[in-house]
Amino acid sequence: MIDLGAIYLAVTGALLLVALGAGLRVLRGIVREGRDLRRRRRAGEVEKYTEDEEYGPGSADDSSHSTATCPQCGAANESGFDYCRRCAAPLRPGA
């Protein structure tokens, strides 16, 4: 007889490993993006602080910054980012 409890544990374990792998991939992308942004800030390519439309004036209406609109939630993001600042969805295919 096949033990259903063992099958359940094996399937659950496999699904958890797949979820962990996907989560680590996303976290690795976020860390890379953060390192790149830190490097660009230190080099003077990016301002140290930019206003956020939710917490401060002007960032969405300021035409001096190029923005990328999130396809999932519609938030305005700086064009250099790979993930949305509001919902963390990829802004570009393959990100």
TrEMBL record:
Keywords: Membrane, Transmembrane, Transmembrane helix. Residues 67-92 form the DUF7577 domain. Residues 41-69 are annotated as: Disordered. It holds the Pfam family DUF7577. This is DUF7577 domain-containing protein. It comes from Halorubrum lipolyticum DSM 21995. The chain crosses the membrane at residues 6-31.
